[in-house]
Amino acid sequence: MTTIRRFVCDDLFKFNNINLDYLTETYYLPFYLQYLSKWPSLLSMAEDVNGKPMGYMIGKAEGEGINWHGHVTAVSVAPEFRRIGLADRLMHILEEGSEKIYDGYFVDLFVRKSNTLAINMYTKFGYSVYRTVIGYYSGDEDALDMRKALPRDVEKKSIIPLKHPVYPSDADL
């Protein structure tokens, strides 16, 4: 049985089993605390019946005007809990919060261009590639900016792909 609840400060001392995956981006403590204080409804923790962390989601709301959106900063599931639909459930919670609490036009995320498993998973969740961001990951690897329109974007303008790649300095990140 899985429980998904709001992420709390104490979780920062419990989620190493999830963060040790080489594809998971890790951040400094103040980064997580900033998210907890500004966007608490967009952070979730999944745990098993014994309280062991299974996965988590960290997101935020950002942008202006028609670019107001929810952003998936990190979604990560511990290896032993993958392929049971947990990432889908965590993503759904963030999408729902982005729509109902923040009234966003879309949800976006960045994924390493080489991470085909994640790209395929996000595509299955309804995301599509909006643009390529050159050298996004430490200047060494490109990112795909993937988006999913929310009901507020009736005409789905937010997900019309750009025809050319952008550099991080040229993108509204």
Attribute tags:
7 strands, alpha+beta, 173 residues, 22% helix
Strand content range: 25-35%
Percentage of residues in helical conformation: 10-25%
Q: Report the radius of gyration as a whole number of Å.
A: 16 Å
Helix-strand category? alpha+beta
Average pLDDT works out at 95
Contiguous uncertain segments of 5+ residues: none
Q: What sort of overall outline do the alpha carbons produce when their principal axes are compared? A: globular
Number of strands: 7
Count of DSSP-assigned helices:
4
Q: What does it look like?
A:
With 173 residues, this protein is an alpha+beta fold. Helices cover 22% and strands 31% of the residues. The protein has four helices and seven strands; from the N terminus they run βααβββαβαββ. It has helices at residues 16-19, 29-38, 86-100, 116-124, and strands at residues 3-6, 43-47, 53-62, 69-77, 106-112, 128-137, 141-149. Strands 1-2-3-4-5-7-6 form a seven-stranded mixed β-sheet, with helices on both faces. The model has no long low-confidence stretch (mean pLDDT 95).
Write a concise synopsis of the structure shown:
Helix content is about 20%, strand content about 30%. The chain is an alpha+beta fold.
Write the layout of secondary structure elements.
Layout: E1 3-6, H1 16-19, H2 29-38, E2 43-47, E3 53-62, E4 69-77, H3 86-100, E5 106-112, H4 116-124, E6 128-137, E7 141-149
Parallel strand pairs: 4-5
Antiparallel strand pairs: 1-2, 2-3, 3-4, 5-7, 6-7
